[in-house]
Amino acid sequence: MIPNLYEPSGWLPLFFLVAMGIAMVAYVVLDGYDLGVGILLNQASESEKDIMISSIGPFWDANETWLVLGVGVLLIAFPMAHGIILTELYLPAGIMLAGLILRGVSFDFRAKAHLKQKSVWNFLFFFGSLVTAASQGVMVGREVIGFDSGFLGWVFAFLVALCLPAGYALLGAGWLIMKTSDELQLKAVGWARKCLLLTGLGVGVISVATPFFSAEIAAKWFTFPNIFFLLPFPILTITCFFFIDLNLLKLQRRKIAPVWLPFALSVGIFVLAFLGIAYSLFPYIVVDKMTIWQAAAATESLWVIFWGAVIVLPTIIGYTIYSYKIFWGKAEPLSYY
Q1: Tally of domains in the chain
Q2: Which of 45, 95, 228, 252 is a Cys-bridge partner for 135, taking CB atoms 3.0 to 4.6 Å apart?
Q3: What is the 3-state secondary structure (H, E, C) of the chain?
């Protein structure tokens, strides 16, 4: 039951749910494309790898700020849910952190290592990116189905773990199409077309499986008038896929087409997928078990962190926009000397 939203005990948990949602969407999109670039790294030549790393160099570390913010909001604003979620996701979360550490180490060491060792650190950057993306796929899959521990639940989680890296690679390829030129840009177009199919499979699998694992979500999807609230999401998602493929085909044939469109529409797919999941799960933070109001901290505690969030969230958004404005433009080959 939804409480009175005019009371602080009603709207404060909703505020922090939105703040956490903004943080997680920002993380998935921003760190998603640089994870995607890392996943694609093994497909490029040595000189192209330097350009690819250069394209994400000013941004990749700061992009992870959003993950810290999202998990921080979960811990502070929804402590009861935090305990349940991280207990269930302890192993994939640990693997994800190991992947992020490996990426950070590899990013720095590849710039300082002897040329003979550089290929090793390039591979480890690719491997760390893939492990991070796959573990996040398991986490998303487990969360969406309410941590179902049956065989089908784990099959679903591992299917998402296969498809989420493809979605990140699609974002990464779209980023490279914008940030590079000539032969590497053409390669990125080819990578994007290959990733588009697996990304579509991932979105389809999540869409089909989610109502299967939850009767309440199924009722929300397939009863009137609720079905009309959900209908725009699949229609807009299919439209995004269609125009991405059309744009990539033009670029592959060296026709004039906007280079920013594949990345922008890929972001649109992720945002629509997130909104669809949010619509399906609301008001639950743990599917069919705990609502955001049941999981929320005491109202007095939420008031204290509310004023901090009002300052911190706009600040992070501001410096993120500013950094992208400063470092915008085509990537150039790295020079370490």
Answers
A1: 1
A2: 95
A3: CCCCCCCHHHHHHHHHHHHHHHHHHHHHHHHHHHHHHHHHHHHCCHHHHHHHHHHHCCCHHHHCHHHHHHHHHHHHHCHHHHHHHHHHCHHHHHHHHHHHHHHHHHHHHHHHCCHHHHHHHHHHHHHHHHHHHHHHHHHHHHHHCCCCCCHHHHHHHHHHHHHHHHHHHHHHHHHHHHHCCHHHHHHHHHHHHHHHHHHHHHHHHHHHHHHHHCHHHHHHHHCCCHHHHHCHHHHHHHHHHHHHHHHHHHHHCCCCCCCCHHHHHHHHHHHHHHHHHHHHHCCEEECCCEEHHHHCCCHHHHHHHHHHHHHHHHHHHHHHHHHHHHCCCCCCCCCCC
**Would residue 337 count as lying in a domain?**
no
Instruction: Determine the Cα–Cα distance for residues 272 and 264; give it in Å rounded to an integer.
Output: 12
pLDDT 10s digits, 203-242 = 887 777 777 777 777 777 777 777 787 888 889 999 999 9
Residue 113 lies in a domain: yes
Task: With respect to residue 1, please indicate whether it lies within any of the assigned structural domains.
Answer: no
- Domain limits for position 285: 14-326
Phi, psi of 270 (to 5 degrees): -65, -40
CA 305/CA 205 separation, integer angstroms: 37
What is the CATH classification number for the domain harbouring 245? 1.20.1630
Residue 334: pLDDT band (50, 70, 90) is low
pLDDT at 276: 84
- Structural domain includes residue 336: no
